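User: quick one - fold this with zinc ion bound?
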Amino acid sequence: MIAGIELGGGKTVVAIGTATGLVQEEWRFPTTTPAETFGRALQWFAERGTPEAIGVAAFGPIGIVPGRPEYGKVIATPKPGWKDFSITGAIAEVFPAAKVTLDTDVNAAVLAEARLGAGQGVDDLAYITIGTGIGAGILSGGHLIHGALHPEFGHIKVPRCPGDEYPGICSFHKDCLEGLASGPSIAARWGQPAAELPRDHAAWDTEAWYLAHGVLSLLGVVSSARVIIGGGVSQAEGFHEKTERILKEIAAGYFVPLSASPYVVPPLLEQQAGIVGALLLTGI
Ligand code: ADP
Ligand code: ZN
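Assistant: Sure. Structure tokens for the protein plus zinc ion:
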């Protein structure tokens, strides 16, 4: 039995399926306290058997590097009760023999998109999500990048878009990429939720400008062959095309991967990427 858990800030998804990413049965429920959320998830598995492998795709920051003291734990989160909670510890109490593979939600998503979605056949792929926060999962030479913790793409510094005086909303850095371009920053800057801003609103030029600068930095470091941008904010009509156009302008003819067209694309798996990725994690 192969199992997957997608732990999101708002909702949790559990599934049983295959290590090739096929979901056979799934259940979605709101994320509440750690004890209640994992109690429900593990009980749901137990009713179906004993998983030999469990893949977990979780919101961060989270310790995903085996051997490090913070491995398996949620590190710093405003979500009450979650800080220092050990995901791997909770699973081991119920299924001590299960092989657990833990990674970030965005790494799970990039893996799923690379195997079954908008990045098929691409070994150097990035998946960026723009919603309440900004994050990126990175596949490099077919391997998921971890580093000492995991990448924190949302918190890179970007230049100021000319004319933009909004101070930024990140509680740590104010005007990092997430502080300037996440859903809440758009709502605060323009006084209207991103989902309600008309297509021709100036907000979308600013948004694409910031994302293009973020992607340029990513390209400078990991040289992705394709970039997938998902998350609620990316659903604005024409967003991917606009970001790609600005990105190619500011790259000024440099960066070989940018000769690909399209380079910035939407995801294909949408809501399923996290849980499909969690199942795929059991096979890596
Ligand atoms: P979360 O990050 O909490 O999982 P989402 O990825 O759904 O959530 O992102 C939520 C954000 O996406 C909100 O700021 C919302 O205004 C914005 N959003 C949702 N739908 C659209 C849309 N069609 N166009 C632009 N923005 C959208
Ligand atoms: Zn920040």
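One thing worth noting: The pocket of adenosine-5'-diphosphate (ligand 1) is lined by residues 9-10, 131-132, 183, 193-195, 231-233, 235-236 (CB under 6 Å).
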